[in-house]
Design a protein that fits this description.
Elements: H1 7-60, H2 66-76, E1 86-90, E2 95-97, H3 100-104, H4 112-115, E3 120-126, E4 129-140, E5 143-152, H5 154-201, H6 220-269, H7 274-306, E6 314-317, H8 318-335, E7 339-343, E8 350-353, H9 355-371, E9 378-386, E10 389-396, H10 418-423, H11 430-440, E11 444-450, E12 454-462, H12 472-477
Parallel strand pairs: 7-9
Antiparallel strand pairs: 1-2, 1-5, 3-4, 4-5, 6-8, 9-10, 10-12, 11-12
The structure holds adenosine-5'-diphosphate (ADP).
Adenosine-5'-diphosphate binds next to helix 9 and helix 11.
Length: 480
């Protein structure tokens, strides 16, 4: 079934149009070439015959008496060139020989003066049959004779006519078969496209893991399938991430909500003292604080995914941000009897970034260090300047991270020890946020840890280039 909007159909249509024009032009050219060559052959014979007449006159002797000459011609007319289909008249208009056939026919007759040195070819009809007529002067021993020779072209015209009909009937047949062949070929070439289309139609949000067939032909179609598959791969990964994130987020929200609900229900179950109510409300409040922190983190990551919520990139002093984070960290550490140490230069170190986001990264790292270090431990924040980048190190002497957890700690909701993390108020989003912020700032974040001895987180951020060669992509990618 032909589909009228299909590429195959349109290709065939174009093919048909181009082929029709080419074949018709070819047919017309062939017909004219054929005609030219056939008439050329007849004309050649006629010229040869006219020359023969000239030779005959010469043989008879041009000075022979016209009467004698006429007699000779009459005798030879049956045997002579063209049988009876010729006539000769001298320059005075006297017929040396007059053909019986030509005499009766309405053909043009020329005198030697009219012809001069030209050859005239006429297509004439004699008794309804087509003839070709050559009229020319022949000079024999200084005398001019007007010679007319005719040849029947009936067969020639029939042949031409036959050729014409062969073309008229043959061209459409060739066209039809060639177009059908063209359509079949184009359909065959496009079948894989249909397969790809159908396969792509069957892929939906629920079946993103399905892939298109790759023809393995090494052509454009294979590239198309591979490109689409790569796109589905990315979509699948992104979709999976979002699904997991939504599921994890709902799960994380369910726990505090259940806790809030039970605490409130328990408090309301019977009459209680003011102290008991206070205690319940305090528990509710602290859980609410934790939950609103979680919601805020979720929103940061959701915005990171959707690319909305602008981060403002501008030259900023990274030392100021570290110092502010350290101030908060020191309070937290000291409340847990952890020694806190920070060493950084006095002079400003400029990077291009969003100061709130950068401070947040340091806060997350210092907060983690405090959370996962027991009393009596030690936390050190160091700044090291390397060529082109500002490196900050947050080292603790805490519980450390097991080797199998290390590759995952930057994943969303990943916690090496869920119970302990939750107890510490963590949901496993801190490092995911930190990593995202650092990456948006074209920086790098790394971790090194020995379980039981402590962990070291290192961040490198590119320094601000005052010569105008800045990281152009940042402003576009940076959202917070
Ligand atoms: P959380 O809110 O649980 O702290 P993070 O994303 O900040 O979430 O960290 C993910 C996990 O990495 C934590 O649950 C913890 O197991 C581990 N981790 C992070 N920082 C440290 C650290 N300084 N010492 C030991 N473990 C850490």
């Amino acid at each position: 079934m032909m589909r009228f909007r299909s590429i195959g159909f349109r290709l065939t249509l174009w093919y048909f149009a181009v082929l029709s024009v080419a074949l018709v032009a070819f047919g017309v050219a062939m017909w004219f070439a054929m005609r030219q060559s056939l008439f050329g052959a007849v004309d050649g014979t006629l010229r040869e015959q006219a020359r023969g007449v000239g030779r005959f006159i010469q043989d008879q002797g041009a000075s022979a008496h016209p009467e004698e000459m006429r007699e000779e011609f009459r005798e030879h007319s049956v045997l002579g060139p063209g049988g009876d289909l010729f006539q000769v008249c001298d320059s005075n208009g006297n017929w040396l020989y007059r053909s019986g056939v030509l005499r009766e026919a309405p053909i043009p007759v020329y005198t030697t003066d009219q012809l001069k040195s030209t050859r005239r070819y006429d297509n004439v009809r004699i008794h309804a049959a087509p003839f070709r007529l050559l009229s020319r002067n022949v000079e024999v021993l200084g005398q001019l004779y007007a010679v007319q020779v005719a040849a029947p072209v009936h067969e020639l015209q029939e042949g031409l006519e036959q050729f014409f009909w062969i073309l008229v009937c043959g061209i459409p047949v060739v066209l039809v078969f060639a177009s059908l062949g063209g359509y079949w070929l184009s359909r065959r070439a496009l079948v894989p496209v249909d397969e790809i289309t159908q396969a792509a139609q069957s892929i939906s949000a629920q079946s993103l893991s399905r892939r298109l067939p790759v023809p393995g032909t090494g052509d454009e179609l294979e590239r198309l399938s591979s490109t689409l598959n790569a796109m589905f791969e990315r979509l699948d990964a992104a979709f999976g991430r979002i699904t997991r994130f939504t599921a994890d987020a709902s799960h994380e929200l369910r726990t505090p909500i259940a806790f809030l609900r039970t605490t409130a229900e328990l408090a309301l179950r019977r009459q209680r003292s003011e102290t008991e109510y206070r205690e319940a409300l305090t528990q509710i409040l602290s859980e609410l604080e934790r939950t609103s922190g979680l919601v805020e983190d979720l929103m940061v990551l959701a915005r990171a995914d959707s690319g909305s919520g602008g981060m403002r990139f501008e030259p900023m002093d990274v030392i100021v941000s570290i110092r502010e984070a350290c101030e908060q960290g020191r309070v937290l550490a000291e409340s847990k009897q952890i020694e806190f140490e920070a060493s950084m230069p006095e002079a400003a170190v400029e990077i291009e970034g969003d100061c709130r986001a950068v401070r947040r990264v340091f806060l997350i790292l210092i907060d983690n260090a405090v959370k996962y270090t027991a009393a009596g431990g030690r936390i050190a924040v160091n700044f090291v300047q390397k060529t082109g980048s500002a490196c900050i190190e947050v080292r603790d002497s805490g519980i450390g991270i097991a080797a199998e957890d290390l590759p995952h700690i930057f994943d969303r909701f990943y916690r090496a020890d869920k119970a302990r993390s939750r107890e510490m108020g963590g949901v496993g989003l801190g490092l995911a946020i930190a990593q995202w912020i650092v990456e948006v700032h074209q920086g790098k974040i790394e971790v090194e840890s020995v379980p039981g001895q402590g962990s070291t987180f290192r961040i490198a951020l590119p320094m601000y280039q005052t010569n105008g060669v800045e990281q152009e992509s940042k402003s576009a990618a940076g959202r917070f």
